[in-house]
Here is the input.
Amino acid sequence: MKRNRFQAIRNPPGVTFRRPGVTVLRIVPNIFAGDPAEADRFYGDVLGLELPMDMGFIRTFRSERETAQPQISVMTEGGSGTPVPAISIEVDDLGEVLERVRANGIQIEYGPVKEPWGVRRFYVRDPFGTLVNILQH
Here is the structure.
């Protein structure tokens, strides 16, 4: 079977091929916001992210944990028939984040649910309408 350059080449199970060249150090989702300060309650208070950079036009939130690996997921759906979320955020205590979401009056779009593939998760929208998948393995 002949492949074109856009068709996936699948690795054998348990094997990861490393391509030589550039190493991606991080991947940053950029969300349009009329007022970036509106992100403080959701990304800061609810998710507990710190604010290491504020230049007015951009506010960057990050986790204290520096061991995250860059990752991009390409999806036909969000799983279980849900829409594809723009961002997935894995947390170590889903129950705590769920309490913060409810305490801040943020509407839950989906879940909370334990999915057949083992993750517990729920969907919410950030203040800018971005669909966010919050999950715990």
User: Anything to note?
Assistant: Residues 36-67+77-136 form a domain with the 2,3-Dihydroxybiphenyl 1,2-Dioxygenase; domain 1 fold (CATH 3.10.180.10). The radius of gyration is 17 Å. The chain has two helices and six strands. The chain has a mean pLDDT of 88.
